Amino acid sequence: ATFVGLQLDEDGNRTMRTDMAQSWVEVVSGRGGRMDPVRTMSDLRAALQKHLAENPELGVETIRVWPVRDGPPVGKPVAIRVEHPEYDYVRDVCNQIEQRLRSMPGVEDVSDNLQLGNRELILSVDDKKAAEHGLSFLDVATALRGAKEGLTVGVFRDVQHDEDVDIKVRYSGQYVKSIDQFRDIDLVSPVTGESVKLRQVADLRFDRGYTNRYHYDSKRGAEITASVDERLTDGKIVNERILAEFAPLAQSDDKLDIYAGGQYAETRDSFRSLKDSAAIALGLMYLILAAQFRSYVQPFIVLTAVMFGVGGMIMGLVVNGYPFSVVTAVAMVGLCGVVVNDAIVLLDFVNHERSSGTPLDVALRVASRRRLRPILLTSITTIVGLAPMAIGMGGYSKIWSPFAMSICWGLTFSTILTLLFVPALYQLVDELKQYVLSRLGRQVRDETVAAPAEAEQI
Asked: Quick one: CA dihedral 172, 175, 177, 181, positive or negative?
């Protein structure tokens, strides 16, 4: 689909201009295996840039290629926002940042939203000279508009079509062809009644203004965006390097602020909220397990499965070459609630056997043998269900394939390590508990024996 005069960027912002167009292209994966979205975007961008370089007569000034994202984080990989009261100064700072970005390897499609529009005729009135002739800015602007577009001086009643037609008076086209002819427009001074040339009280010049003047939280500014080739660099590295290099410039001017937005800001905020969510989730899990097992120690044994799962997930990311992103962080939080099921099943059976008088060693062996099949079946069904998404069967997703892969690796490692180490950890904690209780009991007995001797001495 192609839209002429309309553009929707990664953040959902809509821009309407007559000199732009946007095309949406869906790339279908072939039968020869999964397609790398990053490589596909880079190849498509390079092919379009090569075509434009070979055909300069097309007159295309800027071309940008970016993917439609179906999950967090949203926005451009590089999004630097510059805020200052003066747009011209913002333009200068943006040029410096854009020049630095273009010099970095792997940074592509560098652009900003301060786009220049068509030529405009700028009117600058000298208030002092205009006041001498009793003219205001409105008088001069009205005369200029009347010369070009005309002024309505009356209404003509069209009886035949039963409608009113405005009567306008304006200069003939031959008298308003150049800027010098506009400067020679006559104005009548309300003070002296004499004719005054426009050039005597004002100046005219052609200039190109900005198509849009952006504001962020009521502050004037502009945003610089860029894409990155993830095979060469990372958006986080680029954003942090730009902020560090231009920090002295921002500190030298109190009115100048430089921020990093886009994926960088979204990822930072998401990790901050996920950190709080993980802490709350672990706290609630501990409270529920403590109430279930009626113990303050056994919930910690169950929660060791979380460490096993996180370790397996990290190993899976390293093996598959995936970065630790917001999506995999969400998968890690969800994994915390899944991997503890195996340990809960195992410990619940051990507690049940011990309550019936079975010795600890025998209870651990019986639980490991009888609960092996339920634990394996529970984990295998989950892993098999997520495996097609993890390996990209039927279509690879840059968002959800790493998500599923993280859970599969984490659950696999957690299941194996839970069966191997949780029984040993349970016995170790129980022996440590018995040792501590015995030591406390000996100390109590010693104190009770020493008390009568001290009483006799008194």
From this structure: negative
